[in-house]
Amino acid sequence: MTARIAGRLPDELDEPQAEVYRAITGGARATGPQAFALTDEAGRLRGPFNAMLLSPPVGMAVQAVGAAVRYESVLTDRVREMAVLAVAAHWNSTFEREAHEAVGRACGLTDSELSTLRAGGLPDLADPAERAALCATAALVEVGALNDQEYDDTVAEWGERGLFELTTLVGYYALLALQLRVFAGEGPKDPCDTPQTESRTP
């Protein structure tokens, strides 16, 4: 499937759309090293961001959630990027995988950890806080809920705030993956090519 909506040049945007564009390309996303480009060479938004221009009120709110889970969370950079990549593997999102593998490398994820996440597994993590967060992520992705042990383990390491932020992150990147399927032409996995996932028990 090819993209269903064309990218818009900056000078083609009306003011509400331009406000969303500025919010996405400016602020925290524009500071520091850029692991992946938000726009193409002509300035069109890439990936899921282009679709946010279709509804500026909703697009503005969605991008704000994304900025909050990336830049204002108590989760560490490593945990955040591993969780994003677990979502990307589940949804087979090429854009999310490529973009966040680049971010993950900058955050210290190893080639082995990236390869395991790409295959839909969980890395062998020594840190108990990272293990708890990734086991919770796997449960959220696979069944959409946590059992009591998973809930207690995650809260013990990250607090209720951290767990709330983790569930928000998983939901946000699942939303982007869905919109990439609908608007940008990404497709679901071939059911005959689904990797075997590792147990989420640490």
From TrEMBL:
Database matches in InterPro entries: AhpD-like, CMD-like
Domain of life (superkingdom): Bacteria
Chain ranges of the Carboxymuconolactone decarboxylase-like domain: 58-137
Pfam short name (any one): CMD
PANTHER family: 4-CARBOXYMUCONOLACTONE DECARBOXYLASE FAMILY PROTEIN (AFU_ORTHOLOGUE AFUA_6G11590)
Protein name: Carboxymuconolactone decarboxylase family protein
Organism: Streptomyces olindensis
Lineage: Bacteria, Bacillati, Actinomycetota, Actinomycetes, Kitasatosporales
